[in-house]
Amino acid sequence: MPVKKKLISLALAACACTGAWAAPVSFSGSQNNLSASVSFDLVGSQLKVVLANTGTSDVRVADQVLTAVFFDLGGGVTLSPVSAISGGTTYKGTQWVSDAGTNVGGEWAFDDAISAYGAHMGISSSGLGNIFGPKDRFDVDSNLYGPESPDGLQYGITSPGDDRSTGTGQNNNGGGVFNSPLTTGSVIFLFDVAGPLDLDAISKVTFQYGTALDEPNFAGTLDDNGGGGTDVPEPATLALAGSALLGLAAARRRRRG
């Protein structure tokens, strides 16, 4: 086979192996006046997860604060937590605490060996009955509030419609939210990915509110957003495609010379 045709064949074969880049997938759900969403997006070799409280009602008590999401991935995939960043401003009552873009990794945790609502992975700002512990935090060297562990309501996600002046109670034990730092809107999580992650394989999504599994929770339904798709291309496959294309370019230059 001529060199040019051979290089073209190698490039096409390598590109076919990589497939198209996966589009994000998102899930959403609601119950009474509560609503939430979560999106999963491949960014290079990392998975970005955005957990959002999409409710419009005022948040007055603990079981109206979004604190966790549970989910399953396909087999053979391992996630390693990288970061947790606030997507909105954090307040404690009416007092400003921090702006969007703040590292909240010391207040959020991830575990991939749990059992909750049929799922085996979860992200949470609350211990939820010791499901999540201090070693599960995204940033074990950071602690913004309270004990060095995911605990209580702190840094859970409040709705964009929350009136920060109306949180009932003066402490968490009274069911109130006024004395807990809460992030408005969303939190963004990054994970390193090992293994062939197919976004279409994500399942068993459940949103959790409050500080215990017997508080409000509901399933997330896959949104019709055209998401899902292919596995993350392996670096070796991308290298093969690149080498073949570079070889083709070199062959063309020699021919012109």
TrEMBL record:
The keyword Plastid does not apply. PROSITE patterns: PROKAR_LIPOPROTEIN. It holds the Pfam family PEP-CTERM. NCBIfam families: PEP_CTERM (TIGR02595), Xrt_dep_XDD4 (NF045504). Keywords: Signal. Residues 148-177 are annotated as: Disordered. Residues 231-254 form the Ice-binding protein C-terminal domain. It comes from Rubrivivax gelatinosus (Rhodocyclus gelatinosus). This is Putative secreted protein with PEP-CTERM sorting signal. Residues 1-22 form the signal peptide.
